Amino acid sequence: MIVSAAEDLSVFGTDPWWLVCVKAVFVFAFLMVFVLVSIVMERKVVAWMQRRVGPNRHGPWGLLQSLADGVKLMLKEDLIVKGSDKVVFLLAPVVAAIPAFMAFAVIPFGPADHQISIFGERTTMQLTDLPVGILYILATASVGIYGIVLAGWSSNSPYPLLGGLRSTAQMISYEIAMGLSFAAVFIYSGSMSTSEIVNSQDERWFAVLLPVSFIVYIIAMVGETNRAPFDLPEAEGELVGGFNTEYSSIKFAMFMLAEYVNMVTVSAVATTLFLGGWRAPWPISGVWEGANHGWWPMLWFTLKLQLLIFLFIWLRGTLPRMRYDQFMKLGWKVLIPVSMVWLLLVATVRALRNDGYDFQEITLYVAGGVFAVLLVSLLVDYLREKGDKEEEAARSLAPQEQFDPMAGGFPVPPLPGQTLPPVPRRKPRSERQLVPAAAESLNDTVSVDNTAVKETDGA
């Protein structure tokens, strides 16, 4: 991919050092406040979906509940597992939290060509930008997974280790689909710079132009952040909490902070790449010329972020957790093939437009290619289904072997072609034969009960 030579990043890197520090502190404060609001919002919205009250004790309408939880976690006893690798155990929460903040350095809050004034200095509403800004975000997001893996490994416990391994496989599976969805955006924008990608969406958002890439990224970002229904690295049903089982106090709070900051970061990337970034929505931008000037772009950007955070919460309150095999199948057998085929179609359409073909010819060629792929896939599925039916019929005619599931001392499932022995059924109560002693005891009990009933009637 060749970066477009038309993009101008000369406005970045010219701020004085104190202004860079001010903007960095603002980004940090923005993320922290957004995380506190998102936690309260999640508890309130899920309570509303489940028809219960939710937090209502700390602050008006429970709005200070996140702050109270943070203070409580700070004051809790800080425990370190005796058999753990103490250096790595302490370092893992830091490694998980810091990259989540670093990725926000290249997210634009406003246009680069309309600067604002901060203490008399003109500057852009973005900390910095790079010709490969999206690759920088992918790199920092990939580093954050090391914190989860190191937390599971250093705890010296099997369940945290399994949670860390799950998170690694999850990141590998969904990072590929996420990168392929980015590639379609690069083709249409001609750049990997975040500010240039937003500028290329002045007429139409990429969520409308590239809907398949947008849907794939939405699914991948939920899997990337370990959120429900993809929260398998911390599935308390089988892992007792996952990679952070052995953590407490401020270290546990840092893992929670990293999760919510990652939610905000991936939502900001989705807003920048597919939802027009800081640009105002269509009805407002069409009637108000100043909607994308001054401080107004930050408002539109924040509202889009809030809508995506609401999507995270909505999914958590609606969908149950998937099984791990279903999750891996979705990533490797559905998202990655769909992303690759879609990227091929996007590149074909772009190449035909660059060669001067009109819209009707492009539609004809692309529709023909899609029809051919669907026809081949249907033929393959038909032949595979036919072969499975023939194999199943042959297996049903073959003599089936019975086996003892407890032959090795522990229960094992049957292999293909083997059947379990019939399970003995209990006889109905009327057909059971009582032991003489038990029958005599039962008769005595019945006679005593009848005597008691007669005495009661006589009284």
Question: What does this 3D model show about the protein?
Answer:
With 459 residues, the protein is mainly alpha-helical. It has a domain at 73-343. Helix content is 63%, strand content 2%. The protein has 15 helices and four strands. The protein has helices spanning 17-49, 65-75, 86-102, 133-154, 158-189, 194-199, 206-209, 211-224, 236-239, 249-274, 282-287, 296-318, 324-354, 359-397, 436-458, and strands at 116-118, 121-123, 401-402, 418-419. A two-stranded antiparallel ribbon has the order 1-2. Strands 3-4 form a two-stranded parallel ribbon. A hairpin with a 2-residue loop joins strand 1 and strand 2 (121-123). Helix 13 packs antiparallel against helix 14. It is globular and about 95 Å long. The model is unreliable at 1-6 and 451-457 (pLDDT under 50).
